[in-house]
Automatic annotation (TrEMBL):
This is Succinate--CoA ligase [ADP-forming] subunit beta. Its EC number is 6.2.1.5. The lineage of its organism: Bacteria, Pseudomonadati, Bacteroidota, Cytophagia, Cytophagales. Succinyl-CoA synthetase functions in the citric acid cycle (TCA), coupling the hydrolysis of succinyl-CoA to the synthesis of either ATP or GTP and thus represents the only step of substrate-level phosphorylation in the TCA. The beta subunit provides nucleotide specificity of the enzyme and binds the substrate succinate, while the binding sites for coenzyme A and phosphate are found in the alpha subunit. GO terms for molecular function: ATP binding; magnesium ion binding; succinate-CoA ligase (ADP-forming) activity; succinate-CoA ligase (GDP-forming) activity. Substrate binds at N280, G337, I338, V339. It comes from Algoriphagus machipongonensis. ATP binds at K50, G57, R58, G59, V113, E123. GO terms for biological process: succinyl-CoA metabolic process; tricarboxylic acid cycle. Belongs to the succinate/malate CoA ligase beta subunit family.
Amino acid sequence: MNIHEYQAKEVLKGYGVRIQNGIVADNPEAAHEAAVKLNAETGTSWYVIKAQIHAGGRGKGKIQQTGSNGVVLAKKLEDVADKAKAILGGTLVTHQTGPEGKVVNKILVAEDVYYPGDSEPKEYYLSILLDRAQGCNVIMASTEGGMDIEDVAENSPEKIIKEWIDPKVGLQGFQIRKVAFKLGLTGTAFKEMVKFIAALYKAYEGTDSSQFEINPVLKTSDDKILAVDAKVNLDDNALYRHKDLADLRDLSEEDPLEVEAGKSGLNYVKLDGNVGCMVNGAGLAMATMDMIKLSGGEPANFLDVGGGANATTVEAGFRIILQDPNVKAILINVFGGIVRCDRIANGVVEAYKSIGDIRVPIIVRLQGTNAVEGAKIIDESGLKVASAITLKEAADKVQAVLQG
């Protein structure tokens, strides 16, 4: 589960991670008040205004309606409200949102941390995530902070520092010092980075997260180390242990169909194709999408109804798929292992009758326990549903539907 920057920073702050202070606002007047409060608390006279959406590239992104960037600087208190107004309610398009963009409902008014001092501010990149290939957590760091880390990895891989954490012993002090040393830090900045990494790793483990990305981590002109941005991805499977974190979920940032599917216990991901698919099992769902492409179509979704599929889950799946106007056909592909195919067939018939006016062709491929009996139920239902038993038969029927 993704959370907003302002939420992520509050989580990090609770674990002792130094952050760029800021106050969230949802209207221009509140933004002005936030700036006044920041000035009183931190002494800042410049204010950074950041759009809060679940996507990166906000600084380079543009608000469609006003042309404003997603991250702007107000050098006077009087400018804060106007700059906030140019962002709030607008559609921000970045390289991660796609051309449709995301509506900005909140902004973060943050203090200026790039102030002059004894040395030049310097940006770094730092992340913690699970390396599935190595079977352990890894700290990734780079001196090229503020840039897209993918570009750094492709063009200058030698600038990516990696430190793997043995799960049996956890993060060791020498590993933290090694990362700080490889970043070229010395003196006070070195000590501050060591404390920063230690607190960040404690937060990562304490929240059961799947990824922390701090880009940039800033060394200020007086050698403080702090998080200017924060991208935190929480592990959905661990949220039952973190009710406070689960409450941070922003449903407005998620696809409405995916939200609805989650409420019904379905695993659904919307795609851009023309054939809706409903399958029991993630592996079979991936194979089904391949089959749809081989038949000349494009999958409109990934939808796993789980091993215990029944009339209720099938009906919920139907209703979700049918909300996509691009769907020209629906392929149901079920392996009857945990659940018998005849029960699935009855579930399909019940769901079809319950929904009523279904205007797209439906192909049901059943294989496994009582597959023949299930196909007979489909064929004798009198509904506009075609049955199939083999993958090739199902693919041929999808192709015939798409060709009219």
